[in-house]
Write a structure and sequence with these properties.
Distance between the termini: 69 Å
Strand content: 15-25%
Amino acid sequence: MSSITRRRALGVAAGAAGAVTVLAQAGPAAASRAAAPAAGSDPASFDEVYQGRRIRGGPAHGGDHHGGHHGGGYTVTVDGRELHVMRNADGTWISVIHHYEPVATPRELARAAVRELRGAPLVPLALGRTLR
């Protein structure tokens, strides 16, 4: 059996310190991912006014693309316009507006989109079309 060397002990300590630093810097995004429901569970429906905007979310109806496969059958709207949402494998949610900071629920995602829009209207996403 080999004994631990000073170099190996310092390496392990440095690695642990680095991991703690990374977790501390991750902040709210890591907390919301940790609090995300399991990927198989369905999120609750919601309908509320947030910062003067009507946000709604619930199971998608119909067989079209909207909410079909990316959102896992879930639709989110801001003032009646669809916010394209996507569910990650870990159960977190992202949208075309709030893409790089996953959140735990579609309600949090809709609220984040409203904050990001800063009063601007939500413009429909043109899937599969090229701009000329």
